[in-house]
Prior knowledge:
The protein is an alpha/beta fold and 354 residues long. The protein is 42% helix and 19% strand. The chain is built from 10 helices and 13 strands.
Amino acid sequence: MKILKLFLCIVISSMVLTACNNDDDDDKQGATKPYVIGLDLGGTNSVFGIVDDKANVLETTVIKTGNYETAEEFVEAGVKALQPMIEKVGGFSKIQAMGIGAPAANYHTGTIEYAANLRWAKDRVVPLAKMFSESLNNLPVAMTNDANAAAIGEKQYGVARGMNDFIVITLGTGVGSGIVVNGQLLYGHDGFAGELGHVVIVRGEEGRPCGCGRSGCLECYCSASGVARTAREWLAASDRPSLLRELDPEKITSKDISEAAEKGDALAIEIYQYTGSLLGEACANFAAFSSPEAFIFFGGLTKAGELLMAPVRESYNSHALKMYQNKPKFLISGLDDANAAVLGAAALGWEIKQ
């Protein structure tokens, strides 16, 4: 009888302890703050957003990245822009962390290092994650390459859901890439793996000088600025008729070229065929590295649709090894342009271990 009573005491004590532990777990889960800050730091604009755990972007604000001479001025302006949004969602007590997607960002160190398109980081290393953390009540801050952030967002919320091997290529002011292999984002030993925009695609004296210091980089041809540059060069090299001649050559944008091509302008159509051909050839080289299930394109240049994507697919299959031909999907991101990179940066914020 004594043994039975002892056994019952042990069982009851165990149940009480388990219940207490479960309560503790519930308390911990309940203590999770409901929002993160996502920052899409681009060469032209920096977009800040407050995001919940269901991928709803509740608030956004924008500052001009290039308006600031120093990183300190940029951070000060960013924090000032964030304050009203933070207060609107209940203050810092409601913010879990901050995630930043930025060019030339090192995930391991939280620094931006020699970013060609950022005037305040072009020739130096900037500890941006630490600077934002110290200016935001020591909020945990993580940072990665802007294209890596786009890949994280695409995997969690976009067309890459369920994929373990894919490459996101961002076609904006520059060309960035986020590479996912076996379900893991590829960072490399120093945090800088995946700079496919700076793979040389045009060799020799014909290669255009790139802001990174090299010549002939993919970014010089297949970014929005690269496409505009192609238009200016071709207009200057011939007297072919084109709707683009009605514009100031120095103010031509990729949007202008896309609109001209949609109207049947032969020169504009050829510009996109040339751009797509180079991009497809580059993808054929990238396939030899990781054999992705899909190439996913994101950014303003993708608004050209099949004007760009048709020559990309054709060029890929003509340059790829036979074992890679006709295998990967060529997809355009289904995420809202205005929010996709912010969502990716926010997803990085959710991953920070508290």
